[in-house]
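question for whoever is on the cluster today: can someone run the full assembly for these? two chains, 798 residues total. i dont have access anymore since they changed the login thing
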Amino acid sequence: MKLSKKVESMQFSPIRRFNPFGFKAEADGKKVYHLNIGQPDVETPECFMDAIRAYDKKVIAYAESGGINDLRDAVCDYFKGYNMDFAPEDIMVTTGGSEALNMTFLTILNEGEEVLIPEPFYTNYHTFATAAGGKVVPITTKTEDGYHYADKDQIESCITPKTRAICCLNPGNPTGTVLTLDEMKLICEIAKKHDLWIIADEVYREFVYDGREMASFGMLPEYSDRVIIIDSVSKRYSACGARIGFAICKNKEFNSGMMKIAQGRLCVSTIDQVGAAALFRMPKSYYDEVKAEYCGRRDVVYEELMKIPGVVCQKPGGAFYLTAKLPVDDVEDFLMFLLTEFDDHGETVMFAPAAGFYATPGLGKNEMRIAYVLNQKDMKRGTELIKLGLEAYNKKLGK
Amino acid sequence: MKLSKKVESMQFSPIRRFNPFGFKAEADGKKVYHLNIGQPDVETPECFMDAIRAYDKKVIAYAESGGINDLRDAVCDYFKGYNMDFAPEDIMVTTGGSEALNMTFLTILNEGEEVLIPEPFYTNYHTFATAAGGKVVPITTKTEDGYHYADKDQIESCITPKTRAICCLNPGNPTGTVLTLDEMKLICEIAKKHDLWIIADEVYREFVYDGREMASFGMLPEYSDRVIIIDSVSKRYSACGARIGFAICKNKEFNSGMMKIAQGRLCVSTIDQVGAAALFRMPKSYYDEVKAEYCGRRDVVYEELMKIPGVVCQKPGGAFYLTAKLPVDDVEDFLMFLLTEFDDHGETVMFAPAAGFYATPGLGKNEMRIAYVLNQKDMKRGTELIKLGLEAYNKKLGK
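^ ran it for u. tokens below:
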């Protein structure tokens, strides 16, 4: 029995590839610090389960295909709090940011058409674009530049007659890089000149540090006919398992196309929507608390990393990821060493090798991604274990 | 800004097209009996919300991409109850049966490849197949034959070099037609001969009447390498808003392809999975109760329909739908008459015109679908209103 070419060309999550070795290390009695996954340990606000527990309808019925009114209203109010004006019909509720991306690519890409994405990038974009018949074209960025990509010449050099969209995950995963509002404007200008859509994946929107103001592509109304904002409760409210996301757009043709797909899949989880509406009704102070927590973790990781000779990394401005160059030839080989040969007092550490985040073959071989989703003490010890592991690794290699 | 050709070729739900006129009738003070939608009024078993209310993890975290173990185990046990043997890794948990179909088409169809589906069919198959780049080829069935399609010559006449799968929604929507196990075997034989997949959408599996034994394509292990079973909690447990479905298959390559897509979209709602696991743990007696309820409703509708001169309909054997020919030239025109001109003591009725369930243009113009999802009294009155409406409609037309 044959499978489709599309699914053949998709890949398994490169982040999960090393999991069996991590599990083996744990089975062998080692403590493993998991700096490799994007699942925060921050508690989901209690209002989520409280709202669900209070739900008393006797029939768990289909919701409206575009989302329940209460949630769409709550999302509009959230944006109003940042002086962005969206109507409920601009908000399409989706099964996580994942489905929002999936449906968006399907709505705008024809077979073989291209979407520009700065690399290293969140690997699942490849799966979503491929599913829609499209192709990811990377805008390559460098560790030394802090993975910045808002460069007119560089972006335009990647545009072809087949380009349909520029996709910006901002703040970035795996890099933590943050665009300024001026940089967003520049990208919008380029998109307008070449008649491209902008897919603005802003699921980490609130997590910007060092005095940066929260910024959004939604703050540039003059480009609103081409801007599609992707959003999600997963990271903002530490509710990854809730699977509530959004595609937010003011272009009526786009919304109409999305609604055809939305009606096809009927609706999004009714119960999760009820909980999500409560999350969006929380006061802004919630974001400040969570932001302070992640910023503290980032500072610890960055400080510890800077103690390691040969590490290259600019302090990331947002999200809860950091990508750095390590002084090794092959980060995957080093990670295997950490999981199978190394320990310090029975402890070792796991990160995500960055090669899987690049579309260009050969890039990222000496880079790793750290997700700072554990408490400061664990993040500090985890990063220290990378340092100690490197010393042992170099010793083994006779360096 | 241009949209993709795929999304342009998709259609809005034809079932929902008449909703604005139904709402208008209600706003004007008429009572409308909604025989047009597949949302049952049967209460969701309390164990669903009980299990969710008892969930006490502090972080609503990502679930495993293939589904939580407890749910996959519960599904295996459910099938064991019918002497079907599946392992947890054969069960892919999806966001409703919708996502299971979506992922399945994506996994097996290349651009332009064909899937055979008996028409009239559940319209969203068209959306899912189109999204994957595939094409629906209808096997046309007739009211007079009770919409049966298990005919070797007819099925084989639809097969081309591009055919990749036969899709059987059994029991059927919109027809309520039920395959016997022998008919399933025949379809499997055809699939084997032409090397096709079988997509067995069995979301109404338990709802078979008149002494029919529940049957499944999963009961034919000799074809298990090509059988993909689609399942869902929506109809079986009257939990449409729970968005928990399944793609169940013993073909490891297929499951591996599905897992790539599953990892891309991360996971299915954690909370809904917790509730769904409780649903699958209910005793078999639950199905008997619900089945008796739907069977009683069907009997009422069928009996009332048979009182209408000129109606053509065979008594459907399963699901909770019935498609019938009405003695009118254009069912949509008749429906508009019911909603905008007719009432009996301030009441009128709504059904789904069947033309939207056909892929072949021009077919189904004098057919309607009724969903018997309301209580017997309402179903009886709703069907009576069709009779009274027809009399008034014919009078208006001067017949």
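summary bc i know u wont read the tokens: Residues 285-305 of chain A form the longest helix (21 residues). Chain A touches chain B through 77 residues (CB under 8 Å).
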